[in-house]
Design goal:
The chain is of the alpha+beta class and 259 residues long. The chain has helices spanning 8-31, 38-51, 124-143, 150-163, 193-197, and strands at residues 55-56, 75-78, 81-83, 97-106, 109-118, 167-168, 174-176, 183-187, 207-210, 213-215, 221-223, 230-232, 238-240, 243-247, 252-254. It has one domain (8-252): Creatinase/methionine aminopeptidase superfamily (Creatine Amidinohydrolase, Alpha-Beta Complex). Bound molecules: magnesium ion (MG) (2 copies).
Length: 259
């Protein structure tokens, strides 16, 4: 259960997977206009994953029910959907926020990234939720460096979101990533006693998927009967951004920003 540090060569392999994820998310953004269905976006992502010679990490992701994996290529989570939204005939409308999460494995290495796309004329407070959540992700990226403990970073993330009047979802956390999508350690976007007891000291070669989820209202979430779709308990909007980043000698290197 130890943390697998990556060599510089392995980090470069992960960047190649990360570039594929970035290209897919860019294409999804292009398509994300009123009238398009989430299934159309998902099918385009499926075609791109195949054309890149990659493997989608979400499709058929196992659940506790045998034989029933996750049904989509992407997680597409609209408005009050926090994460793990399933693509379907839902049409994107003006004013929606559309969270799209994409993970692929290429030549054995994984990349994982998510964006929240603002469609047309989004309400001011919802726009601010997205800005704050994106800023929370970048605050983490700017503050990662070897020798620092993750709780210091998480405290900055939580503090920024809460001072801006947003809540931080507690039910999902970021994660180590490498040859598997989910590796040790867990990297929460908030500070709890459990993290302080088992704090992670950041080290060069750690690769982490950092993914803050913030809500406009309550931090509490509910899971629908499909076993996947997670919504805010009060129906208010939720935003999610994610990058895969490698800890370097003096900071961190984002592997899913298309560079
Ligand atoms: Mg993801
Ligand atoms: Mg992730």
């Amino acid at each position: 259960m130890g943390i697998k540090l990556k060599t510089l060569e392995e980090v470069e392999q992960m960047r190649i997977a990360g570039r594929v994820v970035h290209r897919i998310l860019r294409q999804c953004r292009e398509m994300c206009h009123p009238g398009v269905t989430t299934l159309e976006i998902d099918e385009e992502a499926g075609r791109m994953i195949e054309a890149e010679g990659a493997r989608g990490l979400f499709k058929n992701y196992p659940t506790y029910k045998p034989g029933e994996g996750f049904p989509s290529n992407l997680c597409i989570s609209v408005n009050d959907c926090v994460v793990h939204g399933i693509a379907g005939d839902l049409k994107v409308r003006d004013g929606d926020i559309v969270g799209i999460d994409c993970g692929v494995q290429l030549a054995g290495w994984c990349g994982d990234s998510a964006v929240t796309i603002l469609v047309g004329d989004v309400e001011r407070e919802t726009r601010r939720l997205c800005e704050v959540t994106l800023r929370v992700l970048h605050l983490a990226i700017e503050n990662i460096r070897p020798g620092r403990s993750w709780s210091q970073v998480a405290r900055l993330m939580q503090g920024y979101a809460e001072r801006a009047g947003m809540s931080v979802v507690r039910d999902f956390v970021g994660h180590g990533i490498g040859q598997e999508m989910h590796e040790a350690p867990k990297v929460p976007n908030f500070v709890v006693r459990d993290l302080l007891r088992n704090d992670i000291v950041l080290r060069e070669g750690m690769v982490l998927a950092i993914e803050p989820m913030c809500n406009l209202g309550t931090k509490d979430v509910v899971t629908e009967n499909d076993g996947w779709t997670v919504r805010t308990a009060d129906g208010k909007p939720s935003a999610h951004y994610e990058h895969t980043v490698a800890v370097t000698a003096d900071g961190c290197d984002v592997l899913t920003d298309g560079r």
